[in-house]
Each structure stands twice: as C-alpha cells, then as structure tokens.
Amino acid sequence: MPDIIYNRPIGHKKYISIAKHQVNANNSHSKWMSVNIEKDMFDYADYGNYMKLSNVNLSWSCSNDNLWSILEDRTSVGKTNEQFGFFQKPVNQNDEWHGFPIVPFSKSRYKLTNELLRRWVVDGIINEDDVPMILKKKRI
Amino acid sequence: MKSIVTSINAYNFHLFISYLDEGIEIIRFEDFRNKFRQIKTPYIENINIKNTLSEIIFINNNLFGIEENKLKTFPLNNSTRNFSEIDFSNVNEISQMSFDYNTSSLFIFDNNSIVDKLTVNYKNLQTKNRFRIKSLEDNEDKTVSNMISSKNEIYLSIRGFGVSEITENSHEIIYRTEDAQDVCYFDKNKTIIVADAFDGLVFFEKNNPNPIRKIKLFDNDFAQEIKIFNNNILIKGKYGLYIYDIYAHTLNKIWNESVGDFTTYYDMIFFSSKSIIHMLTKNETTISYFKLSNSNKSDIKIDKYFR
Fold this sequence. Notes:
The structure holds two protein chains of two kinds.
Chain A: E1 4-6, E2 15-17, H1 35-47, E3 67-70, E4 84-88, E5 98-102, H2 114-123, H3 130-135
Antiparallel strand pairs in A: 1-2, 3-4, 4-5
Chain B: E1 5-11, E2 14-19, E3 24-30, E4 46-47, E5 53-59, E6 62-67, E7 70-75, E8 84-85, E9 94-100, E10 105-110, E11 114-121, E12 124-132, H1 134-137, E13 144-150, E14 153-158, E15 162-166, E16 172-176, E17 180-186, E18 191-196, E19 200-205, E20 213-215, E21 223-229, E22 232-237, E23 240-245, E24 250-255, E25 262-265, E26 268-273, E27 276-281, H2 284-289, E28 291-292, E29 299-304
Parallel strand pairs in B: 27-29
Antiparallel strand pairs in B: 1-2, 2-3, 3-4, 3-28, 5-6, 6-7, 7-8, 9-10, 10-11, 11-12, 13-14, 14-15, 15-16, 17-18, 18-19, 19-20, 21-22, 22-23, 23-24, 25-26, 26-27
C-alpha cells in the first residue's frame, strides 16, 4: 500500500497516512486498524472534539504541539490493541502531519503532558481513575 | 477541580498519595493495633515534586522513583527534602523497576530491552548482572506494562504480546496472551498469573507456555493490575476490585465502582475511586483499631468487604 493523502478542508492541517503504519504493512512498526480510523483519530485530535467542529475546542495537543487522540468508545485503534493515536508536529509548518497508534509513556518521547490529561478529565474524554492507568501503560 | 490521584503506596505505617501536579502527600497511620510496632519518627508530610513519578518503591527509608525516565531517590526521615538523581550511567531511559526484598536486588528495565540487576547502598548502585530481553529486541514498539522479580527471575508483562520470563542465565520463556497488563508469580504452586485485557486472568505453570486456566471478570470488566494478597490474588478491574481464591478457584467482587490506583498493607487494601481514598479489609479488628492522620487533599473512607 502506498502513502495516502487525506484531503482536509483548506486552512486545516494537511495529513498523510504513511504506508509503514497501515494495516497490511509487513514490519515491526505499530499499525492502524484502518486508514479511516486513522483519519478520524487525526480529526478528533485536531478539532479537539468528536463532532469534528472547528473553532470550538482547542486541539488535543501537548506542550510541544504534538497531537493525541482516543476514540470515544475507547476501542483499539492499533493492530496490537493500542487505544491512542500520536501525531508528531512536522518540522516544517506546511508539511503533512502523520501519526501512528501508541501506548502513551512507552518511550520518553511519547509523554502525554499533565496539562492534557487534566483537560481530558475536565472535558469527560477520560475520568480521574483512568489517569493512573494511563501513566502505568495499561489499557483503559 | 478535585485533585487527581496518580498513585497510592504504603510503606512503614505511612500512606503515600501522589497527585497530578501536586506532589506526594504522606499520611501516617495512627493508633494502630498494639501487636504492630509503632513508628517512632514519622516521615515528612509532603514531597514537592513537579513531575509525576511513574514508579515508586521503598528501600531502607528512602523513596525511589522514576521521574522523566531517570531514577531519583528521596530520604523520608531526613530534613534534606530534595530529590536527587542517582548517577547510573549504564541506562539512558528507565522504564520499570522492581525490588526483590528476599535478595535485596534492584532490577531496572530500560527501553533498550535490557534489565540490570543491582545492589543498592543508599545512592550507590552496582550492577551485578545484565539481562537482554530477546523478544523485545526485534520489536521496538512493544510496551512493557510491568516488571516483577522473584528469586532472581524477572517477569515482564508486554502489551499486545504476553509475558516474558528471564532467568539468571538470560534464558527466556514466553507465555503468550492477547494484551498483558500485569503479571504476578505465585511461588507456592509455581504459577504465573497474567492480567490480560482480553483473555482475563490467565494461569500458567512455570516453564509451560500453554495456559492451564483462564478466568474472565464479571460483566465484561477487564483486568488491569494484579497483586498477591494474603495467599489470594487481588485484581483491579476497570470497574471494580476482585479477589480470586487460588485454591478454591472462586472469584468474588469486593468493590463495585471504578478504581484508580491501589496498594495493599497487611490485611488492608487502599485504593482511590473518583478522587476518594478507601481502605477495605475483611477484618473487623483492623477497622476498629485503624486510624489515619487527616489528609489535606483527599477524603478517606474505611469499609469492610464480605460483610
């Protein structure tokens, strides 16, 4: 499967689905369950809500401007049961974003900030009892 | 907004409650039963730390924690009140740690698929052995959800994979499950128990990769953590706490709401649920004699299970 451009509304972040993270890729990288889930996850992260409404909420971004996402029903988005999506900010502003399914805190560079965790609790995306489990790399 | 509890630990008649962005509150047990020794000098009441500690263990009145993938230590009965980083140049990015009180060995897992076995003398760590985890070497995206040690053997629960057992001579045995969240080892009958998000509790005989038993939690709940507790298995599900009798093979639910973090101390179970700290025990005497100093941040409720 080749890389797949996701055409988003003008003025929004560009996105590309990278082949190595697609479901049929043959490698050791984490893989999305489907390209459609990948696109939805990026939309939720970018819009900061599940309705995909722009200019309503702040993006689900960390202090370093990377984006994070989780489905509303918390089902797995990755082939090995990952529930979160991680989208690293591109080096150049006009470049496409890309991302992959992940377990937060699996590496130091994949750290959900306290600020975003607290915001998700306030907004009801997760609850306070999920926070210790996310920090411990458990399924929620 | 209420404080968010990130971890609960109990050590030496003190409860350690960590909060998101609010450091660690240390609460002393008071008026404890006479048969237990009383602690003479209580620990300090708070540890101010900006970042969250991902792992906490206690060795000789020192708190050891992993902060931003670095190993830090804090003296609990010392006026220094500073966290200090332990210079441990062997490891760049610490992910998990486990202390074996029987052998006084500290095991540290880093994100380069290596476990170091160390001796601890306050801040001085000395490597005694290194274990390479072969099953992780070819797959850098795998996540270790917990590590325990028992008699110089290490068990790693690995998300989306199962459990890896590594012996002193680096021999590795794999116990496959769907999505391992936690693992414990029951030495009395040589059983490895995996808390798996999809398979439930999965029991393996040591050295046999084929499971001998699988137990699901009730009402589509799933297991997130397990601990050995008074010769039983205590399970934290997403929607409650359970006790599994390893001999009678019975599962009972003892708490019916969501749980944040939990720990055990003698016959007591401490846990957070919706920003309230609870203590559960089945022993009426424990409830009668148990009292905590007041917490500044959390309500603490004491209750009995199996009334």
